[in-house]
Amino acid sequence: MSEQKIYKSEKGASEIQQRYAELLKTWPVPAEHLRVPTREGETFVVASGPQVAPPLLLLHGSGANTTMWRGDIASWATHFRTYAIDIIGEPGGSAPSRPPLDSDRLAQWLDDVLEGLGLSTISVVATSLGGWVALDYAIRRPERITRLALLCPGGIGAQKMGWLPKALFLSLFGHRGVRRTARIMTGLDAPLTEETLDEIVLTFTQFKPRTERLPIFSDDALRGLTMPMLVLVGARDVMIDSAATAERVRRCVPNATVHVLPDVGHAILGQTEAVADFLLERRAPQPTPS
């Protein structure tokens, strides 16, 4: 698949890639940029932290890339060898390939990534689409996942579509409409999130996200998840049914820790230490008030 098919234009692709390169320069800890060959094409990985530390895989959401972890990495890379992976078919440094979600090709892609990185077992932190990818992999390869931390994961609660008509209407109003749509989709409406919102607006002005619905995992599939799990969802998520996500995880994965964050939408920020506590088995993770 050519880049032209995941971006609206070559100019738009260039603009996003230039912005991505600028943001990578602001990565707050020393990092290696790795390019791993896979059956779906090259995968770009940003590795940080001590090489002898336990491995931690980071999987971003739709329309994002590794730079979404900039606010978390200084903490996590203290304790782990972190591998922030650009998911294929998204606006990062990996191949534009988009395997069907109702196949095992994404799991095979991750097999290749882990082999290329020399990893056998891993902990994973993932959000949104990345959460779906992580769940799909954990269900298919449970022996490879030691701990699983998910933020607003797809594939458990149904996707909501009620925001779409309003988004289509707002799109008629140019840049202001796109920005308002981004606020609705993410729930980011605080002054401190303006920079993040700017990045999202730039991306979705030029990028074509996946349009298929995320497949929903069955109860039986979820019951097979026996590794320690942390699931954080936002009560105001307009994109994924967070109440159903919490209910199904509590019912099907009784060993999981689930927190529904009040006044939080689809974009869950500021949970660095709660996730670190879970990964390090310190105390019961306490989400940061938003």
Q: What can you tell me about this protein's structure?
A:
With 290 residues, this protein is an alpha/beta fold. The protein has one domain (10-160, 215-280): Alpha/Beta hydrolase fold, catalytic domain (Rossmann fold), CATH 3.40.50.1820. Helix content is 36%, strand content 16%. It is built from ten helices and eight strands. Strands 1-2-4-3-5-6-7-8 form an eight-stranded mixed β-sheet, sandwiched between helices. The N and C termini lie far apart (40 Å).
Overall domain count: 1
Order of helices and strands: HEEEHEHEHEHHHHEHEH
CATH architecture: 3-Layer(aba) Sandwich
Roughly how many Å apart are the termini? 40 Å
Given helix and strand content, the structural type is alpha/beta
The number of distinct helices, counting runs of at least 4 residues, comes to 10
Biggest sheet record:
8 strands, mixed
